[in-house]
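quick one
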Amino acid sequence: MAKLVWWLLVGAAVFLLWRTLRRRAATPAMPPAASPPRPSPSAVEVQPMVRCDHCGVHLAASDALQAHGRHYCCEAHQAAAAAARADR
Ligand SMILES: [Zn+2]
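structure w/ zinc ion:
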């Protein structure tokens, strides 16, 4: 019985060694297919970020509303800031 267990352990060790060596041999030859190609930095459009003058949220300058040299995230905040300015 002990001999059977011994040979099972030897077989398992040989199998694990064979599988590890096979994976190592296959890894350098295979290109990383799982990861999609990353766009180059020049291909990514870099947009300046601005801060909403009312709530402070940061958003892309192209998405922001601009009035009186200030940026707003939405028309409601632009109106609220205008109303706050009128109260002063
Ligand atoms: Zn806002």
